Amino acid sequence: MQVNTQLPLFPPAPIPRSESAATALLLLACSGTKLDRPAPALDLYRGVMYQSYRTHVRGDGAPTVLILSARHGFLAAHTEIAPYDQRMTPERADQMLNDLQSYLRPEAWPSRVSRVMLAGGHEYRRVMHAALARRYGAALPELQETTGGIGTQRSQLGAFLNGLAPALCDRIGQHPNGTPLYRRYGWIEAGATVNVVYRAAPHLPARKAQVLALFDGPSGPTADVVVEEVIGGRTKACPRWIAVSNLRPGLTEMPA
Q1: The domain spanning residue 210 has which CATH number?
Q2: Are residues 40 and 157 in the same domain?
Q3: 152 and 34 within one domain
Q4: Does 144 fall in a domain?
Q5: Residue 59 — very low, low, confident or very high, per pLDDT cuts 50/70/90?
Q6: Residue 82: inside a domain, yes or no?
Q7: How confident is the model at residue 14 (pLDDT cuts 50, 70, 90)?
Q8: What average pLDDT does the segment 96-118 reach?
Q9: Burial class (CB in 10 A: 0-12, 13-18, 19+), 183
Q10: 184 and 90 both lie in a single domain
Q11: pTM of whole model > 0.70?
Q12: Who has the most CB within 10 Å: 85, 192, 200, 248?
């Protein structure tokens, strides 16, 4: 059996640890329209705001999503729940506010947030504001929230999602010339194995590479990588700086 030996000369390099990166946060009200079977919360709800979310969200710029359920409180998007029927009345919102910790689920919230959008009706947003103040206090950035009719709210949510372009984040060091090095850019993360596919030379075969760090180069976001090259009939691992637009998802970890 042939053994996969990508990048055999370079074992995975240790990546410096740093504080967790700030993420965009979307607080989304639940909807009356739901699937008729248990499902992850983000899939269960089928209302028009969820339709707008699915239309506008981008894989390379998706926010952390927490859903405020009138029954369950705040839910991580992947939390599986069964269909139910409960409305967020003023009385229900008051009940949640009076026992907020029971509905907050602190483990579901990111430790740091860069941008925040509140999407929902008035009673939902009352609870969302209180939860954000409890969770982040003075560290909370400026908020955006939906207002007006449902059509306007859908447009506001779409504009928020469209504006979430990937960003270099989670600094881990610097080049000798002082250029900051980062752990992440969108889906690309230091330590991961990716495919290098040059857009300007699509006829060339994909090459495996290990990402060491990311930085803002002269032509935009750039990856510091080690690429597997065949030179003189021998496989060698060669350092390169490659624009992130030439990288594609590859193996999730380096082969043993």
Answers
A1: 2.30.30
A2: yes
A3: yes
A4: yes
A5: low
A6: yes
A7: low
A8: 94
A9: buried
A10: no
A11: no
A12: 192
Residues 142 and 207 in one domain: no
Structurally, the chain folds into a number of domains equal to 2
pLDDT for 200-241, tens place per residue? 887 888 889 999 999 999 988 999 999 998 888 888 899 999
Q: What gap in Å lies between CA 152 and CA 208, rounded to an integer? A: 46
pLDDT of residue 21: 61
Give the pLDDT confidence score for residue 20 in this predicted structure: 54
Domain containing 157: what range?
23-162
